[in-house]
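In this section we walk through a basic example: taking a raw amino acid sequence and producing a predicted 3D structure, encoded as discrete structure tokens. The instruction is simple. Fold the sequence below.
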Amino acid sequence: MAKIKIIKNDIVVVTTGNSKGVKGKVIKVFPKENKAMVEGANLISKHTKPNAANPQGGIVKQEAKIHISNLVLIDPKSGDATKVGRKKDVKSGKLVRFAKKTGEVIK
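The resulting token sequence is shown next.
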């Protein structure tokens, strides 16, 4: 199983499917399923019963999971879509993620 290079709070763009071209923040990652939830992408309609938070009930739009292969990270420097690499940091000796297009380290 490959290492997932997208983590929570990354800004990504959806490359395929109904939400193609949508940019958003990663809300949650599901490593065992190779899926992630992206803010404003892959919206589904869910029927809900009345509860304390929503006393009326009804149909609620919410995000659904998207496969990791359909997401590409946005480069923090240029704002373009980029692949993610991993390399050892010279100062700390830890593995860090970097954008392959610009070489910028991703925080």
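Looking at the output, two observations stand out. The chain has two domains: 1-74, 77-107. The radius of gyration is 17 Å. In the next section we compare this with other chains.
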